[in-house]
Amino acid sequence: MAGRGSSHNVDHRFSGPQVEVVDDGWQAQEWEAAFQSQAPQTQVREIQAKSIISHNLSPDVPFGRSINPYQGCEHGCIYCYARPSHAYLELSPGLDFETKLFAKLNAAALLRREFATPSYQPQTIVLGANTDPYQPIEQHYRLTRELLEVMLAHRHPVGIITKSAMILRDIDLLRELARENLCQVMVSVTTLNETLRRQLEPRASTGAGRLKVVEKLAGAGVPVGVLAAPMIPRLNEPELEQIIKSAVQAGAGCADYILLRLPHELTTLFSDWLDEHYPGQKEAVLNQLRASRGGNLNSPAFGTRMRGEGQFADLLAQRFRLISRRLSLGKRHIALNTASFIRPNEQLRLF
After folding, report:
1. Which pLDDT band, with edges at 50, 70 and 90, does 7 fall under?
2. Packing angle of the helix pair 143-153, 171-179 (nearest 10 deg)
3. Which of 222, 224, 277, 346 is within CB 3.0–4.6 Å of 178 for a Cys-Cys bond?
4. Is the dihedral of CA 82, 86, 87, 92 positive or negative?
């Protein structure tokens, strides 16, 4: 479907044998009407969240706290590992994920409340761990900017993962945070091939645009790196070295990569996408993934789920190590400042 990553909805893993459409106050009628057209329109439900910081205990995720001001993502990346999370909302990880979105209007207020808790201890919070904090609806809602304003006011460290050039709107805040070693940005660059980019990520910034983001952030003194992700065998995986090299030339100081993951409904969605765009390569791509996932298309095993295992995965890891060594790249995760944290209602320590 033009302008969308997925061409259809798929039943999610919590679906029953029958689905009955009921108007329960969630704008169901508007959403259903939108889906009757050839090009579903983005629908946003404004919500008041009960909590805002998510805690992560996974040993292969290098951060313990994250915030996602939005659920669902309009970028429409067909490979997005966050798609299956829409099933918890009784929505499809397919078109629903990129057209039926949720905005947590009280995100900044909840963060201030967390910071005011006497037992709260500062630790880097990552924005964009699940859905992009700078997806198109941020232009209107500005929830990510509000969160950064709270981070700056209370001198709290923050990491950002994004593939959107919209982050440059907030370069003023990021520059101030960087002066006190309070932020780091990772820019996700999936491909520099614009045809492939439009198919994979129809509403995201161009590859060239993301390199410009790296350049401008680095020029403003903001620590920035590149995340070459996800690497898809035969499609964008041959670009690994070029993506990293181009990002370093733009000013990136570190890099990382992730092998494509296909949890839950994403297996069907990505397989259907290959049928639509790359039918001749479908089996080769999927077989390479199976060879890297113990014979399956996905493996949730800690330690290997991000990198895979086997001959192809080992070769990809070796290629990454070689290009990183050649370009003298630093570590992806730098130690950010937690000592300057100002709890709400405390006297501001400005000097």
Report:
1. low
2. 20
3. 222
4. negative
245, two tokens: 């090299």
For residues 9 and 92, the answer to whether their CB atoms sit within 8 Å is yes
Side by side, which strands form the sheet with 255-259?
Answer: 54-55, 65-67, 125-127, 158-162, 183-188, 224-231, 255-259
Q: Are 29 and 43 in contact (CB under 8 A)?
A: no
- Residue 304 pLDDT class (50, 70, 90 cuts): confident
CA distances to 1, 157, 271, 292 from 276, rounded to whole Å, are: 10, 43, 9, 24
List, for residues 235-268, the tens digit of each pLDDT value: 999 999 999 999 999 999 999 999 999 998 999 9
* Separation between Cα atoms, residue 272 and residue 266, nearest integer Å: 10
Tokens representing 183 are 């932020």
- Give yes or no for a contact between 46 and 103, defined as CB atoms under 8 angstroms apart: yes
> Would you state the structure tokens that stand for residue 208, as one six-digit string?
């060239």
pLDDT, tens digit (0-9, with 9 covering 90-100), for 316-333? 999 999 999 999 998 777
d(CA 278, CA 262): 17
